[in-house]
Amino acid sequence: MNRATHCFVVMAELQEISDRETVATGKGIGELAVKRFRRTGKWVFGTLLIILSNQH
Predict the structure, then answer these.
(1) Chain-wide mean pLDDT for the chain?
(2) For position 56, what pLDDT does the model report?
(3) How far is CA 4 from CA 8, 9, 10, 30, in A?
(4) Number of domains in the chain
(5) pLDDT above 70 as % of the chain
(6) Residue 14: how many CB atoms within 10 A of its CB?
(7) Does the pTM exceed 0.85?
(8) DSSP states along the chain
(9) Do 45 and 36 touch, CB atoms closer than 8 A?
(10) Mind listing the pLDDT tens digit for each residue in 7-27?
(11) Residue 38 backbone zone (phi > 0: left; psi -120 to 50: alpha; other: beta)
(12) Distances, alpha carbon 51 to alpha carbons 11, 29, 32, 33, 55, in Å
């Protein structure tokens, strides 16, 4: 499986999980993450985004 195909599969699965959570709870995944992780989660999530966006 090449990199593009792998990325597409991961994105599709994340979208499906997000949609299911939204239907089940009535809240978006962002709202649920903020409620669950508060301030520490925001820092961890932001750090992970920076690290992963710099990968080649």
Answers:
(1) 83
(2) 60
(3) 6, 9, 10, 25
(4) 1
(5) 96
(6) 11
(7) no
(8) --HHHHHHHHHHHHHHHHHHHHHHHSS-HHHHHHHHHHHHHHHHHHHHHHHHHT--
(9) no
(10) 888 889 888 988 898 999 999
(11) left
(12) 18, 21, 23, 19, 7
* Residue 35 pLDDT grade (very low, low, confident, very high; cuts 50, 70, 90): confident
pLDDT above 90: residue 4: no
Structural domain for 14, as ranges: 3-53
Look at residues 26, 1, 35, 29 and name the one whose alpha carbon lies nearest to residue 15: 29
The answer to whether residues 28 and 22 touch, using CB atoms and an 8 Å cutoff, is: yes
Q: Do residues 19 and 26 touch, judged by C-beta distance below 8 A?
A: no
